[in-house]
Amino acid sequence: MATAIIGDITVGYDDEGTGEPLVLVHGHPFDRSMWRPQVERFSRAGWRVIAPDLRGYGESTVVPGKTTLDVFARDIAALLDHLGVDRFVLGGLSMGGQIVLECHRLFPHRLRGLVLADTSAPADSETARAARLATAERLLREGMGPYAEEVLTKMVAPANVRALPEVAAHVLGMMRGTDPEGAAAALRGRAERPDYVAMLAEVAVPALVVVGAADEFTPVADARLMSDAIPEATLVVVEGAAHMPNLERPAAFDEALQAFLKPL
């Protein structure tokens, strides 16, 4: 684990292994520890795996207010500049996947490949935007605990909450441990994100789209929309997983990621 001063914030990150860089972006309301199985596996498999905490999460600085996806994307670019990384494979889950799409919008020349896990490309509808803003206010009012308990069985499939208690405890712990100010800022910014659908046809690097078969937040249809629109994208549906297939079914997730990375 390490930290770096990036602009006016401190960013916590993992940087393990040697070789071509693979950068993994966590979702909301998590931190970089959600990628621990993949950091360990792929750093041993010849990749330099970098997993940052986004601003407002984990060990990174909490900035109240509103954090739009371009701010997260520029933080990642600045961290990689600090680490001397020019081009890289970039992967993200959920909000992290939307940050990957924003990175493609801002600096596609730096990307060697995209991994879009349990995420979606369209902008929020008015209803979804209002719900996101209401959730931000709820987190500030109640703290993270009630929300975390409420969404656990959507993040992790109910059968896996029972069968994989350590995974469920990890996911619940990440959510409870997130600063409400950071989470609320991200929700407000995410409600304003652009629609990335039209951009998908412009992706000129290999892309892996992966989704849990039982994901309620970003269903298989959302993944298929992206894989159909991105030229020569690969779609992998992970059976027995909901929104966190990298933790619920790490063997299947890692097998798909390994197959994708091998030719890169």
From TrEMBL:
Gene Ontology MF annotations: hydrolase activity
Pfam families: Abhydrolase_1 (PF00561)
Signal peptide: none
Keyword flag Hydrolase: yes
Database matches in SUPFAM superfamilies: alpha/beta-Hydrolases
Name of the protein described by the UniProt record: Alpha/beta fold hydrolase
Taxonomic lineage: Bacteria, Bacillati, Actinomycetota, Actinomycetes, Micromonosporales
Record keywords, A-Z: Hydrolase
All copies of domain AB hydrolase-1, residue ranges: 21-250
Top-level taxon: Bacteria
